[in-house]
Each structure stands twice: as structure tokens, then as C-alpha cells.
Amino acid sequence: MQTEKVTPMMAQYLELKADHADALLFYRMGDFYEMFFDDAVAAAEALDIALTKRGKHQGKDIAMCGVPVHAAEGYLLTLIRKGFRVAVCEQMESPAEAKKRGYKSVVKRDVVRLVTPGTLTEESLLEARRHNYLAAFAEVRDACAMAWVDISTGAFHVMPLAQVRLGPELARLSPSELIVSEAKETELHEVVSDFGIALTGLARSAFDSTSAEKRICDLFDIATLEAFGSFTRAEVSAMGAVIEYLTITQRGNLPLLRPPQKEAEARTVQIDAATRRNLELTHSLNGGRTGSLLSIMDNTATAGGARLLERRISSPSRVVDVVKARADAVSFAYENARIAQDIRTRLRNVPDLDRALSRLSLDRGGPRDLAGIRNGLIEAEALHQSLAQHDLPDLLREAAEGLQGHGELIDLLDNALVAEPPLMVRDGGFIAPGYDEDLDAARELRDEGRSVIAGMQQQFVTDTGISALKIKHNNVLGYFVECTATHAEKMLSPPLSDTFIHRQTTANQVRFTTVELSELETKILNAGNHAQEIEKRLYESLRGAILDHAAEIGQASSGLAEIDLATGLADLARSENWIRPRVDMSRAFEIEGGRHPVVERALAQQSGEPFIANDCNLGAEDDGANIWLLTGPNMAGKSTFLRQNAIIALMAQMGSFVPATSAHIGIVSQLFSRVGASDDLARGRSTFMVEMVETAAILNQADDRALVILDEIGRGTATYDGLSIAWATLEHLHDVNRARALFATHYHEMTALAGKLPGVDNATVAVKEWEGDVVFLHEVRKGAADRSYGVQVAQLAGLPAPVIARARVVLEALEKGEREGGATQKTLIDDLPLFAVSPAPQPRPAKTSAVEEKLKEIIPDELSPREALELIYKLKEAAKS
């Protein structure tokens, strides 16, 4: 039996694939990335491309598919979004270099990068206005921590984090990928799967805190980690794991990261995953951005400003001084509208400095990134000069100070680069004329070779006195000097023979060359490649100069984002009629004329109807719990009222103006929302179970500075069960949690608690009845509702008239029994006459016309055209009769 031979190329592929078994291998072959075997089958299905075959292996066809190198980024994005990891294998030498080792030598290839969800940097693979975080969770003894980076911007953060808080923090950050120890992978899978995050297990050695500290120090070239502050062993472990993973995926070419910033839970409002989802902070309930608070507030002009806005919405501050400083910045821009408008005009010309810098650091950038840095720094310097003339609040002053001091780098880049460079280095033409003499000469030869040759020809004519002398070119001889046989003797005799070297004689012509012409020919033929090599060298020089100023560029980028956010929020406040809230350490929660910004915008766009503003006062003194018990019918706006007050508190503490006529908010430490629920079939949880789990989390965590909004607790079970749970929940919030809360319910019996618990007030959403219908006024007033108007809402929803009529009869009987107090529910139901409401009359079938009867007898396929025409005339006559 003959043993099948494995080709050298396939042997190389199998060796590389064995080292990256968990990833699709993009194997570079010329202008394509090829995939083989199971990789090809999976990729062809995921990308919807043709699956073909190439040769055999172990007696079976080798499946193959491929994608063009120039379009690879789009295919990479599709694969990453579908959960694949991709190992990019490039050719490390040219085929010509490989042949020097032997005719059958295989081109050297190696994996240069492992593409995963958390390690994307390409502009086309990322959302410009969102961070793309890679996070790592570590546990050392009984302490835990999480570190996260965005390698596309250089952001690097770390915080101590109990494992129970992992879910809420993942909801806040929305990382694309989470790294954990292989020992924790199974345990954390359920938590991570809730958020659609890619979970990656690393060897336990990657989390060793001792080696992790060395990795951090080596990355930042520092002697000790104390240069950045004090970190726990768990925090060091998490940071070290991130760096180890980047080393693996980037094949040692580490991104440019900023020094790690330590965060603390105590400095930001704690918001759990359910609350973020219910309030639709950064994503609407359908998962998209449209309809979220972020979509309404994003009035930023730059990508960096947009990312900062999302961070602020996701992590409002609970430090009064921080909130005040941010609000001061917005107030300055609000009060100086003309200055703010000039700033925003300039900001619209600012490219994404952070991501351009990151791509350059990873050597994935191009000439446009160089130009982006230049253009961004030019605008930064201009903004600094403009802002320096004004008395700025602290936050804007600090931001403006970081915009200056880039003159030397700007001059270098401005002199070196053309105004609009191409995308890729290989495209050439991005270095400005006059910047480099050698490049200008190479370009002249490349672009003006004919004129240079013509000039040399004229010089030869002058030197020889032979006017018929020509310089010509063919594919055999290249460039040569040609003259007629008549003048050949002169050319072959001294002194001309010392310069002109005979090459060929034909019937009528004699051809020569010169040393100068040969050298010029070589230069012309190589001028294109030479110009490209010079530009590559200059590109590397400019890239190095930028990276040498990376810290200053990062500071400028942060300053631009801060200025952008402040001016954007101020512009939004003017257009939407928002006001600056008062935020302090009291327990106040006084909002007058509050509005829901998302609903208000939707109403204006869809129907032009005004939003009905409402007040909310949960008490201004330190007098214990402050709870509003809200009653009223469905569709009246209870859920909107609950959500809008939570959103106003969040906006206030992120430093924004708020949609109200006035607002005084004492710092909120935690924000909890349980509004609406759905079942969780994947975990076998009913809607009621989900509701109870979320409610339990609130009651077990809320402190006396929390803001809690609860809607319809207990509605998913039997009436008395639900009422008892809702009743006990409200008492617990009042007596134990002592939190500020809005508690909406349909259990009117609970309104009696307002007379028993000093911190509870009744409020209701007003409605008006008119001729049996209900009109929703959307006004929240003090007092209690005595009806839910459920039947009227059902009628509005379109339930059949017989169902509505029957429901009214049943409701009247049940309410009568409750008033009389003597009849049991079973007796009342037994006394109700079955089908007391007559069914809706069914329409009588219409009488069939003579024309319809005739049409039933006709078989169209059997009619000739003439018969069909005659039939039409007959039917017309029958219709008249």
C-alpha cells in the first residue's frame, strides 16, 4: 500500500493549525487568505461563500475556501460577531526569497495576530462611538478584582470586585470578551452568558500575581508598580492576565496602554443589570441603540466625546465635588452659547486621536492616521488659544491645558504630509513634495522619465553635433542611443568612442549606450520601487515621532472629549429646555415639572403632542424613608413616571442638566428599578420568578441613600398572594432599607399604608371618564385611585364587544359582592348567569347574483379568445338586468 505524501505547504499549514486549534486559520496565499479542512467548512457556512476542494489528505478531499486579502476586514467582522476566533497567518517572505533556498521551498509563514472580540483595532471592525473592552476577572485567596482595557484607545482600568458584583459590572462596562482562569470558566459561564460576552479561559499561571507584577513593570518600563499607586494582589493578577492575553493575541506586539487607573465602587452609583435594562440607559429593550437614553443625549461632535458620554451615563458619580465640577463645565457652555458654538464647529473637524494612536502603536495604521494626529493636534492648539481668553471652570481649564504644547510635532507632520493622504502605505504619494530630496528625485524619474531622457538626448546632440541622434527603448536592449550608418564612423572614433559604447549594428542604424544612460535607465526602472521604499522609511520615522509624544497626544484627546461632552450637553439643554439641578449630600428628592427625555422626544417626532410634566417630592429632610405609593390604571403613564424620576437622578449625578423646571437631588448611592418583567425560559424561570428574584436583590442590597422604583410587585400570582408580597415589600423598604422609593401598584388596599407608615404618601395618575370611555390625563396627583379601569383599557386595546360587555357584568357582580361583604367569591360566580351577554349577531350570507352563478360554471382554460369576448358581453347584459 502506497503511503500518501503530505505536500510541504500542507505540512506547514497543519503545523500552524495545531498551534491554534481553537481558531480559524487565515492562511495567506498571495492575494487570498485560504482556509482548509473543518475551518473551510465552518467559514464557508458562516460567510456564505463557496466551498471548494484542493488535493487530498488521508484519502479524502481537502475542503477549501478563501477570502481576498483586500476585503478581509469585512469577513473578519462577520466571523467575530458569530463567535469565531481567527488566527491571521501572513507570508514572512516573498516567493522570490523562498526560491533562493530551493525551487520547491515553501514561503515562510507565521501567525502574526489572533483576532478575538476584545482585541479589535481596525476602524471598520469597531463602533466609533463605543468602547470595545477586554476584561479579566481574577481571584487571589478570598479577594477578587477585575481589570479592563480598550486596546483601540489605550484605556486601562482596574478595581476590587466581589464575585457577587461581577454581573452588575459586566452590565456597566459591556466588555466584548472576559478572561478568567480555566478553573473558574465553568463556574462563571452562566453569569457571562447573560450578557453575550465571549468567555476565554487562560492557564492559572497567567493569573500568578508575582509574574503579573513583572509583566506590568516591563510593559510600562518602571522599576516598581508603586509608581502607579497601591494595588491588591487580586488587582495585580487581573492586570497581569490582561497583559498576558494581549501578548498571546498580538504575538508580542503590545498596544500602547495608558497607566492603569484604579476605580472604586464607592465613587459611582451602583446600578444592577436589570435596572440598566429596564431604564434603557445605553440600549433599548430590543437591543438597539435607538430609543435609549444614550441615543437622546448623544449630541457630541467627536468619537472620543461619545465614548465619554456613554461612560458617564453608565457610571454616574456619587461624589458631590465631581458632580459639581462637571455641571460647572456644562453651565459655562450653556451661559456662553456663542463661544460654545465656535468650539463645537472646531470639534467637528477633530478625528479619533485615541484610535489612530493605537493603530500606529500596533503597526496597523496608515498615512491617514498620521494625518489624523496632525489634524487633531492643529484643532487642539486652536481651541486652547480660543479658550485661554476666558475665565473657565476648573474642569474645562484642566482640559484646555492639555491641548497645548504640540507645535513641534504639528510642524513636522504638516511639512511631511500631503493634505489628503491615501489609506495604505503601499499606495504611496502621502509625503509632501519638497520634504525629502531623494524622494523628489525618485518621483521625478518615475513620473517624468520621458522628459529626463529628452533632456539627455538634447545634450548628446549638442556634444556630438549629430542632429539625427535619438535615444530609444525596446524590451531587449532597454534604452540606447541610435544614429544612422552615415554618422557611425564619427561615433566609433575618438573622442566620442570614449563616451559612446557600441552595442548593435543593423542595416541602416548603429546603436550605442553610455555609462550615464545605463545608470539613468536603472534609476528610471527602479524609481517607482525606490520612491515607495523612501516613503515607507519616512512613514516609520513619522510614526516613531508620534509614538514618542503618545502621552501628550492622549492628554489632548482626553481634553477634547471633556470639552466636547460639556458643550454638547449644554447645546442639548438649550434646545430641550433642561435646567441645572441642585445636587448635595441631603436626602432631598424634589423635582418640579419633570419629564422623560426619551418619551418626550418620541412624542414630538411622532405626533407633535406635548409631554405632560409632573412633580415628585420624596422629602427633603433626614426623616427616614420617603415613599410614594402610586395607583392608577394601566396606560395612564405610571411606568413612565417611575422611570423618568430615576433617569433624572442619573442625569443629575453624571453632571448633566435635566428635563425639569427645577430639581434638588440628594446624592443617590444605588439605583434600583423593577419595571416590567418577562420569563427566563433558559433557566426555567417564570415571569413571577424573575420578578421575585429582582425584588429580592433590591431588598437585600438597597441602603438608605438608594432610589428604588417598583412597578406592580406581586402581579404574577394569585391576588391575595400578590397583595401580601407587595404589602410586605413596601413595609421592608420603609422600615429596613429606609430608601427613597416610588412604588406603583394596582392593589388599592395598600393605600391604607399611607395612614400607618409615616414615610409613605399616596399618589395617583389622574383619569377622566366620558360616556363610558376613559381619558388618560397623565397627571400625577396626591391621593389614591379607587379603580383600575382595566375593562376600559381592554376596550381600547380592541377586545371584541361581547367580551367587554361580559366583563362589565362580571366586574359589577364581583364589586357588589365585595361591597355587601356577605357573599363568597364562589357564590358570586355561581350566581352569574352563563353567557348573559348575547353573542354578536352574525351577518347573513348575501344572495348570490346571476352573474356570480354564471361565473361559477365557467372554466377559463377551455375558452377561446372569441368565446371569452362573447362571454363578457353576456355578463354585462346579465348585470344590467
Automatic annotation (TrEMBL):
<dbReference type="InterPro" id="IPR017261">
    <property type="entry name" value="DNA_mismatch_repair_MutS/MSH"/>
</dbReference>
<keyword id="KW-0234">DNA repair</keyword>
<dbReference type="GO" id="GO:0140664">
    <property type="term" value="F:ATP-dependent DNA damage sensor activity"/>
</dbReference>
<dbReference type="Pfam" id="PF05192">
    <property type="entry name" value="MutS_III"/>
</dbReference>
<dbReference type="Pfam" id="PF05188">
    <property type="entry name" value="MutS_II"/>
</dbReference>
<dbReference type="InterPro" id="IPR007695">
    <property type="entry name" value="DNA_mismatch_repair_MutS-lik_N"/>
</dbReference>
<dbReference type="GO" id="GO:0006298">
    <property type="term" value="P:mismatch repair"/>
</dbReference>
<dbReference type="InterPro" id="IPR005748">
    <property type="entry name" value="DNA_mismatch_repair_MutS"/>
</dbReference>
<dbReference type="InterPro" id="IPR007860">
    <property type="entry name" value="DNA_mmatch_repair_MutS_con_dom"/>
</dbReference>
<dbReference type="Pfam" id="PF01624">
    <property type="entry name" value="MutS_I"/>
</dbReference>
<dbReference type="GO" id="GO:0005524">
    <property type="term" value="F:ATP binding"/>
</dbReference>
<keyword id="KW-0067">ATP-binding</keyword>
<dbReference type="InterPro" id="IPR000432">
    <property type="entry name" value="DNA_mismatch_repair_MutS_C"/>
</dbReference>
<dbReference type="Pfam" id="PF00488">
    <property type="entry name" value="MutS_V"/>
</dbReference>
<dbReference type="InterPro" id="IPR016151">
    <property type="entry name" value="DNA_mismatch_repair_MutS_N"/>
</dbReference>
<keyword id="KW-0238">DNA-binding</keyword>
<dbReference type="GO" id="GO:0005829">
    <property type="term" value="C:cytosol"/>
</dbReference>
<feature type="binding site">
    <location>
        <begin position="632"/>
        <end position="639"/>
    </location>
    <ligand>
        <name>ATP</name>
    </ligand>
</feature>
<dbReference type="Pfam" id="PF05190">
    <property type="entry name" value="MutS_IV"/>
</dbReference>
<keyword id="KW-0547">Nucleotide-binding</keyword>
<dbReference type="InterPro" id="IPR007861">
    <property type="entry name" value="DNA_mismatch_repair_MutS_clamp"/>
</dbReference>
<dbReference type="InterPro" id="IPR036187">
    <property type="entry name" value="DNA_mismatch_repair_MutS_sf"/>
</dbReference>
<keyword id="KW-0227">DNA damage</keyword>
<feature type="domain" description="DNA mismatch repair proteins mutS family">
    <location>
        <begin position="706"/>
        <end position="722"/>
    </location>
</feature>
<protein>
    <recommendedName>
        <fullName>DNA mismatch repair protein MutS</fullName>
    </recommendedName>
</protein>
<comment type="function">
    <text>This protein is involved in the repair of mismatches in DNA. It is possible that it carries out the mismatch recognition step. This protein has a weak ATPase activity.</text>
</comment>
<dbReference type="InterPro" id="IPR036678">
    <property type="entry name" value="MutS_con_dom_sf"/>
</dbReference>
<dbReference type="InterPro" id="IPR027417">
    <property type="entry name" value="P-loop_NTPase"/>
</dbReference>
<dbReference type="GO" id="GO:0030983">
    <property type="term" value="F:mismatched DNA binding"/>
</dbReference>
<dbReference type="GO" id="GO:0003684">
    <property type="term" value="F:damaged DNA binding"/>
</dbReference>
<dbReference type="InterPro" id="IPR045076">
    <property type="entry name" value="MutS"/>
</dbReference>
<comment type="similarity">
    <text>Belongs to the DNA mismatch repair MutS family.</text>
</comment>
<dbReference type="InterPro" id="IPR007696">
    <property type="entry name" value="DNA_mismatch_repair_MutS_core"/>
</dbReference>
